[in-house]
Amino acid sequence: MTKVFTLFITIATGLCLHPSFSLGQEIQDSSARKPNGLSAVDSLNAPSDLQESALRGDSLEALVGQLVDADELPILEIVGEESPRSSRTVLEMRSRISHKLQPARGFTEGKYYGSSIKSYQRVKFSQGENLAAAILMEKDAGESRLNDFLSAYVQIKNLISSSSIVVGDYFIEAGQGVGLWRGFDYQKGTNVVLPAKKKGRGLVPYASSDENAFLRGAAATVNISNWALTAYYSNKSLSATVDTNGNVTSLYTAGYFRTESEREKRSNLSERLLGGRGEYQFSRENTAGITAFTAQYSRDFSLVNEHFAGNTFNFASADYFLSLSRVRMFGEWAMTNHVVGGISGIHLEPDNLIDIISAYRNYPAEFFNPYNGSFSERSGAANERGFYLGLQIRPVRGVRFAGYFDQFSFPAPSQGIIFPGAGHEIFLQAEVSPARRFLFTPRYRRRVTSESGSMVDQAGRTVMFDEEKVLESFRLTIDYRLDSDARLRTRVEYVDLHFHPAMAVGREHGILIYQDVAVRASGHLTLGVRLAIFRTDSFESGVGEYETDLPGVLTIPVLYGRGVRWYLLANYSLFESLRLSLKYAELIRDDVKTIGSGLDELPGNRDNRISMQLDFTL
Amino acid sequence: MKSRLCIPIFLICISNCYGGFERVEGGARAICFGGAFVGLADDGWAIFYNPAGLAQLRLAELGFFYSPQPFGLSELKSFSLTGVYPTSLGSFATSVRSFGFSLYREFSASLAFAREFSGICVGMNFNYQSVSITNYGSAGTIGIDAGALVLVFKNLRWGIAARNINAPTIGQSAERLPQFFASGISYEPMDALHLVFDYQKEIGFAPSPRFGFEYWIIDEIAVLGGVADEPSTYAAGLGIRYVFFQMNYAFTMHQTLGLTHQASITLRLM
Question: Is there a contact between A601 and A105 (Cβ–Cβ < 8 Å)?
Fold first, then answer.
């Protein structure tokens, strides 16, 4: 039977205010986070926000991929791994709107068709364990309709034997995600195991705001003996940039349809996908599976960045997850577009306090698959080869250490990368809790990448170069719990960026300091405030700031330039079933007269946003 | 043909810095650790990393190491032999090592002694190193290595080591041999698991942090892994032991130069 793991993420007021929460407990609980399978992030619509950040050009993390950093899990509350459905009827409604107070140029010049309100409306319904349904309507700022993006599903379970049928939107988590996975996942970070080792949940209904990473049609899983057999069909409209011949040169995944040119791309490509998956469970921890599908598009592809042409691609893979004593072995290898690629790894758990994980991945340049979600340095998992080694250990009570090393290379040149590239990353973090109220978290990250480009020298000649880029980040976070109702967090992060040899930029620095205060003002009201001060030489040396937001939202702006950002976040529970959340955020840049560029440019050096959300459960 | 063209370039790069003897490493087990062996040094291959570790040995050892094609180039092949004999005075050890091919060959032979004083192991290694280049002749010199190792806690060891501390030179042009300084710890959270971390510095180059682990899944089989920066290297391998016999296999992936396979056999004499 397909297991349903659910990660409920509640972001209270900048810091988690769960009554039983304590800093000492936070460290102790880290082993409880070790995955019996990877947690899902059903209720987290992070991709939308990450995408948005990426499009604004203000999120380095998002540019790497739509990923959730497990670093920040201490401020997220993991309630449970499996969601036993209540036998009663449950209706959940979530209504969220947000608004930027300064009108962007696209609005003042009349280029955007719709209002500046961003809207998210979702209703979920379940009756007992066997029936569930949801509908989501979403509108981005500048879009004209409340249902600019519409997503819905109906799920019926156990209609025939042990089965699950989904009609509408869904995604499939299979193997290690080489073939099919949800649209976003954990990135490399404090939890060294989660990103590299996956345990898929199989067929999962979908109603979230990412406008790309799902399938639309119908799917069914039937469990027969030790077999879980899944068949799926999807017929979905996509958006793409096409050339004069009508061929697709790139997929348009931003999800914005605010202007004439953006609307021209809308639904100009259709995809029909048909496939199946069989998974055999030898025992609770030992499985093997095969996944296969074929996808056909209404236009020919002539992608610039990927090595793929034509209008059809076929995918087939075999995956395994084997457990032998305290050793787990996992992997998935696939053939698509006439090449073979995949990932294999080993996870050692000498005891409950230690995890060691190592993985090898190899994705050829021709490895095209838009539904790939496997472990990789860059999104898309193509043209990449890498070795990963991670360790997390609690040597003594109150101390936790995590570190990883990742060596990667991009063997083939691609768009914007003239030469094959390579790099590696080192991450070290300690969590030390000398007293129950204190938690010190120093972190060091060093990332070495190669970047190629071209420049014109003094003689007017075009010179191609390939240079090493080294980004070092030093971070210290101090958490202090005043009492059960109040917490403080202070963070200082310093970024040092340098190039070898210094062809164009030389050396840059950036620093971010922020202070969080979170209090439970009453039994119904929690408040959180953050003040962040930053100064960086450029966007390249910008510092990512993981922000708490309304429940279900994760915002990761990269602060760069010189300025201040602050926000106030409030949660008020009117009744047990009704919760109101409010966030007001402001960004003030000292070093510019306007923020942003193009149609997103704001008239001054301030960016204010107000967001409200109502959660209602019946 | 391609590989033969590459060799002179590679050697020139080395020669520009030092008079050879750059890749002095032995024992596939230590290589699996990413070369982080200074803080552990608990087998005969310690003679290459931290001679003080030889004082930890209670049984005589014989070891053989072979790396047939580093980075795919048979011209860079190396092999080495070690022998350790513990006595009541301390541990005596010897090793020989050969690197290169007919046109360029390095050879070294060493004698080492290590002893424990009040819980602190100290050791020294006298290493005769010679190089011969066809049509250019040969030259040799003696380098001195030294190290110390201390058991800080029951499961934590700390070691320091230096190679060529006498700053030897070689040949008529008096080219310096490389000097290394390293500090490392090994942590044993449980009997079956070793975690090691080294911080190594070669004069003239950026410091190189290294990390490795060894986990005995069962008494006879271990998996090992390690990483190093400067240069970026990933290593992994297997260990098999049975009574007096131990075999290790390691592969390393150098970020730029590529893959290398190596293996070693160690015999422990009762």
Answer: yes
| Rounded-to-integer distance, Cα B86 and Cα A500, Å | 49
User: What sign does the CA torsion over B211, B215, B221, B223 have?
Assistant: negative
CA distance A486 to B11: 63
Contact by Cβ (8 Å): A561, A589: yes
Q: Which of A553, A587, A588 is nearest to A571 (CA)?
A: A553
pTM beyond 0.90, yes or no: no
ipTM of the complex: 0.87
* 3-state DSSP helix/strand/coil % of chain A, to nearest 5: 5, 55, 35
**How many Cα atoms occupy the beta-carbon half-sphere of B44 within 13 Å?**
29
Q: Residue B37: give the domain boundaries.
A: 2-269
Q: What is the pLDDT of residues A311-364, one digit of tens each?
A: 998 999 999 999 988 999 999 999 998 899 999 999 999 999 999 999 999 999
Quick check: B255 and A387 CB within 8 A? no
Which residue's structure tokens are 């500046």? A116
CATH number at B242 reads 2.40.160.60
Task: Give the whole-angstrom CA distance, residue B213 versus residue B225.
Answer: 5
In tens, the pLDDT along A534-555 reads 999 999 899 998 888 898 887 8
Instruction: With beta carbons less than 8 A apart as the criterion, state whether B32 and B25 touch.
Output: no
Instruction: State residue A546's pLDDT score.
Output: 85
How many of the other CB atoms lie within 10 Å of CB of A105? 17
pLDDT of A114-165, one tens digit each? 999 999 999 999 998 899 999 999 999 999 999 999 999 999 998 887 899 9
Numbered residues of chain B with Cβ closer than 8 Å to any chain A Cβ? 187, 189-190, 192-193, 195, 209, 211, 213, 215, 217-218, 223, 225-227, 229, 232-234, 236, 253, 255-256
Written as one string, the DSSP assignment of A228-258 is: EEEEEEEEEEE-EEE-TTS-EEEE--S----
Fill in the DSSP letter of residue A618: -
pLDDT over 90 at A399, yes or no: yes
Q: Name the 3-class secondary structure at A56.
A: helix
CB of A515 closer than 8 Å to CB of A487: no
Q: In whole angstroms, what separates CA A118 from the centre of its chain? A: 20
Q: What pLDDT does A305 receive?
A: 65
Both tokens assigned to A616: 């209602």
* Alpha-carbon separation of residue A291 from A5, A278, A344 (angstroms): 21, 7, 16
C-beta contacts of B125-128 below 8 A and 24+ residues apart: B125/B47, B125/B51, B125/B93, B127/B164
Cβ pair A350:B215 closer than 8 A: yes
Whether the pLDDT of residue A444 is over 50: the answer is: yes
Residue with tokens 């967001």: A611
Looking at the structure of chain B, the number of domains it has is 1
Which of B187, B211, B234 has the CB atom closest to A407's CB atom? Answer: B234
Q: Residue A445, class by beta-carbon neighbours within 10 Å (0-12 exposed, 13-18 middle, 19+ buried)?
A: buried
Both tokens assigned to A33? 């986070």
> Which tokens sit at B224?
């090992």
Determine phi and psi for B5, rounding to 5 degrees.
-70, -35
For residues A87 and A128, the answer to whether their CB atoms sit within 8 Å is yes
Q: Which ranges in A214-317 belong to alpha helices (H)?
A: 260-265
Residue A8's CB is within 10 A of a number of other CB atoms, namely 18
Residues of A whose CB is below 8 A from B252: none
